[in-house]
Amino acid sequence: MPEITNDSVAEKSQSVDNFNIQYSHAPTGSIKVGVDKVTTAEEAAHVLSSIRKHGEEVFFALVTDKSGNILEVQRHGKGGKTSASVPVDVVVPAVASIEGAASVWFAHNHPSFTNSPSQSDIDITERLDDAFDGTDIDIPGHVIFTKGSAAAVITPDTGTKNNYIKVKIKPRVRKRTLKVTERKISQYPKEERSLVAHQKKISSQKRKLNTAQ
């Protein structure tokens, strides 16, 4: 039998906890790569090609500066054999918070080995492009790993699922190790909690005022 709780007490406790929580991306793994820069779809596919081995769909973001230097590799979504959830409201701030970020390549795998992008792949790419509007961060492409050493690449302007580019992933000696980060939840240090709670409360009040206007 489920435990009966006092909803108002539980909600109040959760509200207090939320003020003490901070989100950040922390290293959870690593990948080996054979390039220092990513300026082409093939190079992006090379860096993230290991995700094609996953038995379920996973979604990654590869962030570079304006010269193509790799700044961070982030893992954002995880799903089943046919889909992976992509939290747009999490992806955008996570990428935009990286100092020097100028471009972000997205990538996911098709465990079913479907050879072409789906309409859902195109739709999420367009949604992400809209969400990044005004950030000065470009989306050069979304790499979709299919069967073998090939990958399909779409852009926010692809439009239809038959209008995509195929790239062949070149073999390279992988000498460089890149950390892969994921979103983690932690609590602010006790000495910072009062200040953080106050700042969040002010921000919340400002949002309510703006909404009312």
Mean pLDDT: 80
Structural class category: alpha+beta
Question: Do you know the CATH architecture?
Answer: 3-Layer(aba) Sandwich
Reported for the largest beta sheet, the result is:
8 strands, mixed
Molecular shape? globular
Could you name the key traits of this structure?
about 210 residues, alpha+beta, Cytidine Deaminase, domain 2, eight-stranded mixed beta sheet, 5 helices, about 30% helix, globular, disordered N terminus
Quickly describe the structure:
The chain is of the alpha+beta class and 213 residues long. The chain is built from five helices and eight strands.
Describe this structure in words.
The chain is α+β, with helices and mostly antiparallel strands and about 210 residues long. The chain has a single domain (about 25-185), classed as Cytidine Deaminase, domain 2. The protein is built from five helices and eight strands; from the N terminus they run αβαββαβαββββα. The protein has an eight-stranded mixed sheet, sandwiched between helices. Strand 4, helix 4 (about 120-130) and strand 5 form a beta-alpha-beta unit. The longest helix is centred in the C-terminal third of the chain and has 23 residues, at about 190-210. The radius of gyration is 20 Å and the shape is globular.
